[in-house]
Amino acid sequence: MTYEEHIRKELLHWRKKMLKTPGLLEKGSKAIQGKINNLYPQKFLDALTGTIKRLVRGVLFGLEYIPKGKPLKNMDLSVRDLRALEVLKTYKRVAAAEGAGTGAGGFVLGIADFPALIAIKLKFLFELAHIYGYSTEDYKERLYILFVFQLAFSSQQKRPLVYHKLVHWEDTVKDYPQSQAMEKFDWEQFQVEYRDAIDLRKMLQMLPGIGAVVGLIANYGLLEDLGKVGMNCYRMRILQEKGLY
């Protein structure tokens, strides 16, 4: 079995995970998350919503996250995967250190951790795109990154829709022309799903005494989740282009 055949089997297993129907546990967790959201101060929710909207706009129309150098071309998928894992390892350490530092500072620094963590995640995805050979100077690739981010932090109820958009990317991107992307992209769902995906872990980060430890573990785990989804999305695209998926 070739490496690409092995990855194809992994992707088929991953697809089942992305498309599975939410169970009682997922539905119960969603209800609990709704109650948790009511515990947040409104200024915290407003700050988070504003941060996510600003970063979404920045990713779509800005160039600040584009890595230096050209995307990697003419490289085996196995080599790309190794490089991706190396970069992910670095970003997990950065996120963990950032989470530990802000977690030690209580509520105020806990709020500051949200935009910092989002920026770390986005920078990681930009580097990941280049590793797999896609130029983030292309607006369509920056849009793809947003959907990858959304898939990683969506509830199981919303994941199948986002997954299908990524699987059928050439059709999806036609619905989001650059001049209308901000109006058509559902950033409200984007920020709600993201907030719900991380809220319990991040809320514990703000507690005195344990915030630093929780912040370290939470940020490390969130980057781990994003890394798995990001790598699989780009693996899927490469295999699709070769007619193997």
Automatic annotation (TrEMBL):
InterPro entries per the UniProt record, alphabetical: EcsC (IPR024787)
Top-rank lineage group of the source organism: Bacteria
PANTHER family per UniProt: PROTEIN ECSC
Protein name per its UniProtKB record: EcsC protein family
UniProt source species: Desulfitobacterium dichloroeliminans (strain LMG P-21439 / DCA1)
Lineage: Bacteria, Bacillati, Bacillota, Clostridia, Eubacteriales
